[in-house]
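Hi, here's the filled form for the chain we discussed.

Project: internal
Contact: R.S.
Residues: 206
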Amino acid sequence: MAAVGSVVLELLAGEVRLLRAVWLVARRRVHVRSGDDVPLPYARGGAVLALVLAGVSLVELVAVHLLVPWERFGSLAGVRWVVLGVSAYTLLWVLGWWAALHAYPHLAGADSLVLRQGPWTVLEVPWAHLAGAERVQRLTPPEDRHTIGLPGQGLDLDLALDPSARPRRAVTGREGPPVDAVSLAVDDPRHALEVIRSRGPARPVR
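And the returned structure, exactly as it came back:
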């Protein structure tokens, strides 16, 4: 029960961070933990995916409201408004998810590299546990590496980690098995690599 409760709390916290992301983007700000954090944006290509999801949600919203013959359901016709509310919230969630890609970038902090996926921290690596970094061009996610990026986005950096690093599962926040290799997407690979090597390892992965 305690584990279930922690997952539920993390889900609720994620929803709050999605709403906060809309506020941050409206003010043209990003979330950082301190003044030492250097944001490393990764939202490239997110707008296309968000538009597709928003379009599907909007079509569903219109279809549920106008096309379904709710009068045939008799006393259950009131379910229409529940379904309509869920569809409207889904559209709002997509907006929040898109905003979170911009509002919660990866962070190169004073003590660690924080890798995020929208409002969730996927992996936090102390600089001492980062063994190497190099720029790559990967169009498809490799099977032997932990990947952090959007579907179809492509991957720009390879990181070699201390095997003790444990990624956090997106949404639930629970730890996954240890990883020693990560590939991730960033908007400006050259700048991101310069920042990472200035604070972490100066050598490439190989």
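Let me know if anything looks off before we file it.
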